[in-house]
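Handout, section B. The chain below has 236 residues.
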Amino acid sequence: MAKKGKRYQSASKVIREAGGGPFTLEEATDVLKRMKTAKFDESVDMDLRLGVDPRHADQMVRGSVALPHGTGKEIRVLVLASPDKQAEATAAGADHVGLDDYVKRIQEGWTDIDVVIATPNVMSKIGRLGRVLGPRGLMPNPKSGTVTMDVAGAVKAVKAGKIDFRVDKQGNLHTGIGRVSFSAAQIEENARAFLLEVLRLRPASAKGAYVRSITLSTSMGPAVEVSCTEAVNIAR
């Protein structure tokens, strides 16, 4: 195993000195803020391991949530829409707007975007893009609000900090909830908003413990373990 760098080791020491965890969400964000970070504004990520089996359709956990303080990241939005909705998308702040030309570019491998929004009346053309967009989590979906006639509202929501999430094949959820430049309170509030939405989406068929582990981490740092009791408390 490769030896971790000095910054990583220093961050791990902060965790040990704080008691090693698991921590409350407030404690975890405080520990995170006390770590020495990289020279760039690292992402703050939250990872959950859920007690679900995504191989069963009725245990798929997928949704979206508007983070109170946004993600701190400039989100690149593509809107695929019929001509009558394209001006609306552009005015709302979409980075790329069109249809046939972008369908062709995506088929050729272009995916330099973070979110794809589409109107329902063009989905027949977009369906063929599933093999490119699906594995990257970019395929528009009504459940996440990215298939809609209200393209202006969808673009503004994404730009304001709305994130989409989907459990992977192992039952894990991973998403960015902010930046290390955020205050501890901002990180905690974003984390709570994300966790609350995940709890709301608990499948009725999920048995036993639903949230089995929670961690916070920076892009380059070690994971800070959060007590699963937090999930119980937030759900009340």
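Note. The first helix runs from residue 6 to 17. Compare this with the example in section A.
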